[in-house]
User: Fold this.
Amino acid sequence: MKFVLPVAGNGVRLRPYTEDLPKCLLPVAGKSILDWIVDDTLFLKPSETIFITGYKSEKVDEFLTKKEGWGKTRTVLQANPQGLGEAISLSLPYVDDDEPLLIILGDTLFEADLSILADEKENVLYTYKVDDPKRFGVAVTNRSGHIERLVEKPQEFVSDEAIVGIYYIKDVKVLKECLKYLMDNNIRTRNEFQLTDALQMMIEKGCQFHTAPVSKWLDCGLVETLLQTNAYVMSRNDNAAEMNEKYKMNAEVVSPCHIGKNCILDACKIGPNVSVGDNCVLVNCRIEDSIIWDDVRIDSGWLKHTVIHK
Assistant:
């Protein structure tokens, strides 16, 4: 199995933070968004992970040179982004027709059972049940549980199963053919080559798709949702108790909270829902519901609902 992670987006809605880093490398609960995604999928033992880069591609290249334990990786530049379909097509020369492909969008976090893919015989789209399907692309299934069509932002109810950006493709040869047809004939939706258009063509050609559920879909697209995701992930990966013991003479750490390596805390109360990066100096401050990047110094103040970078 090969992985493809498209990470070319420019993260406009998260500026000014994405002026320093691409969205996929923003810190959440002590690791980057990309770390959380890849670390949670390595048990599937990919033969290679391909990152489709674009905006600040050099930052992703630099990040990957420092990673250990991720196996073989490759970056492919999407120099002039023209949609997710184009992004995936750039990876396909490096994917054999008989090797399954797992595509995961590199800017959202999720909780889902990916272990089923180890023995999966069909194509799979992961979906999440939503209250307002009008905002999403959805999968419409038939009585056998197979997907019969994909509908973008339906104005009348056809399904509440939103497509979340996790795609397992068994029929790689057909995907290649469908994406090539779209681009050779300049078939665009909203002026871009869409992956969902290629997937719909695959369904019409007889490829079998079914859905698999995502139990938690965590948005990282706005500062407020990034902070909510940070709080949720820390509730599952909390090191506040350890940090309270470490800093008990100088600070109070309130759970859930993450404190990075080589930090100095003095006369502080940190948390709840705060992640602090490595090499930070925090003095005489109160911080709640926030993300503090690496190498930040704060000498005094009360911070809440914010992201602080160096």
